[in-house]
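User: Fold this, then the next.

Assistant: Folding the first:
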Amino acid sequence: MTFEVHYRLLDGDVVIESDRGSVTVPVSNGSLAAFYTSFCDAAAELGVRPPGTSLICEIPDAPRKFEDDQVERTWDGDAARLMWTALDLAAGGLETWQAPFQGHRPRVGVMWGGFDLSATRYRAHRATPEADRPAFMQNAARDEYVSVGFTFGDAESPNAGMYAYIWPRPDGLEGRSWGVYGAAWNPDAGLALLPWTALREMADPHQAIVAFGDAVYDAAVETAGWPADLIGPRCNGWRMSTTPPAADRGGRDH
C-alpha cells in the first residue's frame, strides 16, 4: 500500500490519501494527544497502521510521547496563514538560490523541531562530526556543506529570519559583507543572520534571499576553498541551458 499525508495550513486540516481513498482530519482546538488519536483512527480507515513510535523529537521540554501531551491548545488560522506566507517567500528565494548549483543539492526541505526551511549544498570532502552531537546530527556532518535557511526562532533566539553557515566553520567569517543590508555575522551562534524585520522592509525580499545565499557561498569559496566553477549562469531563477537553439543544430524540435 502507498499513502501520502498533506498538512494544509491554509485549510486547517490534514488529508491522508492512499490507493484506497482519502480521509480528512480537521485541525481544531484541543490537545495534541486528542489530535494524534484522531489522526491514527482516520489512517486506520484506509488500512494504514499507526507510526511505530510516538516519541516527540527535537522539541525542548516537550512531553515524551504525543499521547502524553494533554494540554488544551487553540488553533489560530490567522497565525497559520502568516507562517505560510513566510515559508512561501523563503522557499521561493531558496529554490532560486539553489538552481544554478551543479553539485549535490537536495530539495529545499522542512526540518523537524523548529519547522525551519533548509537549502544545502554539498561537496565530496569528508568532515569530522562533533562527538557530543546526537547520531542523526553526526551523520549529517560527515561531509562538508553550505546551508542557508529560514527559521521562526526559538526561546533562546526568538527572532525569525534567514540564517546560514558553512560546515566545518572556516576562519575569516567575521567582518565580511553578507550581500544585503541588515545581514550580519553572529559569532556566538556561528551563523550569518538576515532578520525578518529587515527582510520584510526590502523592495524585493525574494532577490534579497538570493543575494544573501550568494554571499554565503562566496564566503565558502574564499575562506574554505569551495569551487567557484560549480555555479552555472542563472536565467529567470533557473540554470541557463547550454544546448544550442534548434536552428543552430540544423533541425527542428518535435
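Now the next one, as you asked:
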Amino acid sequence: MQNRLINKTGDEVSPLGFGAMRLPLKNGKVDRDKAKELIYYAIDHGVNFIDTAYLYGDSEKFLGEILQGEYKQKVIICTKMPSIHVRKYEDMEYFLNEQLKRLQRDSIDYYLIHSVDLKTVNRLLKRGLVDFLNKAKSEGKIKHVGFSYHGVKEEFDLLIDSYDWDAVMVQYNYFDDNVQASTEGIEYAASKGMGIFVMEPLKGGILAGKMPKDAEDIFKNADSTKTTAQWALQWVLNNRNISCVLSGMNSMEQLEDNLAIAENTAPMSMTFEELETVEAVKRVMRNALRINCSTCGYCMPCPQGVNIPECLKIYNEKYLFDQKGFINVSFMNYYQYVGGIMGKAGNAGLCNGCGKCLRKCPQKLDIISELKIVKKEFELPGLKYILPIAKSIGIPAYKQITKILNR
C-alpha cells in the first residue's frame, strides 16, 4: 500500500486502517486469539493505523496487551475521549491517564474527542477542554488532537475553526456523501492540512454483500469481477483528501479483500464511467432504504433493552431486498435476533419513548418514531404469549425454517 501524508503532522498513514470497534467476539468478549491473528496479519501487510476508543469495551486493554515489541513501534494508535462521560475538567485527565494505562503507552498518537457536535464541544470548552488539550500535549501524553464528528454539516466548519486541530474523523461513503461533514466539509478540513479519517465506509455493511437486485445488476454490468464492498471502499479511497479509511474487519476474508482494494486504489484513480456507476447505484439505494441508519451503535445501550440498530437494520433489509409475503426472511430474523427466540428480547415494542437515544444518534434520526414503525411492521398481537410457544418449538427447528426461507 502507498501511504498517505498528513500535511499538518508529517505522519504517513496507510490508506486502510484497522477499526477496533467490531473485533470478533467470543462469549460476549473479544476473541483474543482470532483478533490478534487479524491485527498482526494486517500490520504485516502494511496497515499502520489502528483506531479504538474508551467506549469500545475491552478493545483498548486488548490492544495494549498485543501491541508490544516490534508491533508497538509499527503502528499509529488513535483513541478517543468519552465526551459523554465528561462532567468536569478532572474527568478528562482521569480518562486520558486510564487510556494510557490500558494501551500500555506513554503517549497517544492521535487523541480524538469522541462523538461530538457543536453543542458537545461548547459544553466541553466550558469545562476547560482547551487547557486540558494544551497541557496534555505539552506533557507529551498526546501527540496530535482531533475529534470524531457526529453533527450536522452546517456546523462542521465552525468546529474545524474552533481549535488548532490536527485531525478529524467523519462518516463518509457514497450513500452519505452529503451528511455530517459532507464532501465540501472534508475539502475544507484538508485545506488546513488536517488528517481525515473515515468511519462507516460501508455504512454498517449495507453497502457490502447482498444488495437490491437493480443495484447489483448495475455493478455487475459495469464490472462483474468486483464486489459491492470493493466498489464502496474504492469510492472513498479515490478521494485525494482522505488520509485513512477505517474498517472493522472481523474475518480473514474481509481483511484480505480490503487489503487488496487499498493496495490497488490510488487517489483520483476511478474513471468517469466508474463514478457514474456508483451514482446510479446510489439512486437505487436511496429509493429502497426506508431508515437512514448506519448501525453504528452510538444510540446504545437502551435503558429498556431495545436492540435499536438491529431492529432498524432488519426493517431496512425487508425493503432493500424486496421481501414479500407475511412470513418472510426479515420477519423470521426479527424474532430470532431481537424478538427473544435466540436470547434476550430487544424488540422495538420495549421502547418507552425515554428519548436517551435521540441525543446520541449521529444521523439525528427520530428513533422513537422509527421504532413504532418497526413494531407495527413485525410485532404480532400478543407477542408475550407467542414467544414462549415459539421457543418450545426448539432452536434447531427454528433455524431450519430460517434456512428454507433464505434459499
